[in-house]
Amino acid sequence: MAEHPLARSIAPLVERLNAELIDPADARADDVTLEWNGKPVVAVRLPIKPTKPIKAEKVVDGGVRSLLVEVAEELGGPLRELSRGEKQRAVLLLEARGAFEYRKSAEIVAEALGVTRFTVYNYLNRAR
Fold first, then answer.
1. Which phi and psi angles does 33 have, rounded to 5°?
2. pTM for the complete prediction?
3. Largest interatomic CA distance in the chain
4. What is the mean pLDDT of residues 110-123?
């Protein structure tokens, strides 16, 4: 399976999506099976997303807060004390790490940076 050209060519994309390449014989109903010349070659198992929104309490205790700590350490100081450009970079790093997938994350990030939620959204829109 991994030796097949299709599997090799999609491997970087699958890794970027935090997905997994699966032998088609082991594929589940929710996996995506890919064919080559009409024969199944590889299946892709996508990561499971929560079906319920994550409660704000869980975000505060884990996800977004831990990502904020990581980014602050990476940028070398408290997020509130960063320059405008560094705050923009912090928002982009947080986005790349999935921070904005959590409910109420923009408010939490804005508070940590000492800016408004509107400013966080502006930083995200500028990057796009």
1. -90, 130
2. 0.52
3. 58
4. 94
